[in-house]
Predict the 3D structure of the following.
Amino acid sequence: MITRLLHTRYRVNDLEKAVSFYRDVLGLKEISRHSSPRGSTLVFFKAPGSEEAIEICHYPQSGPVWCRPT
C-alpha cells in the first residue's frame, strides 16, 4: 500500500484508463479534476493519510506520450 507521495505529474495518453489504475489498482483517492486554459485535463490523487498529491495530465495537443521498453 502506498502511504506517502511527493507532488508528481505524469502525462498520459488515456486519461480514464490511468484514473482507473490509480484509483482501483493503487487505491488512491481522486481529490480534484479540472481543465486548464490551454486544454489539458488534470486529475489529482492522494494516498490515504498523505498530504502530498500526484497529478495525472492528459494533453493530447502535445502529441503522444512515449515509453521506452527496458
The CA atoms of residues 5 and 36 lie 23 Å apart. The longest strand covers residues 29-35.
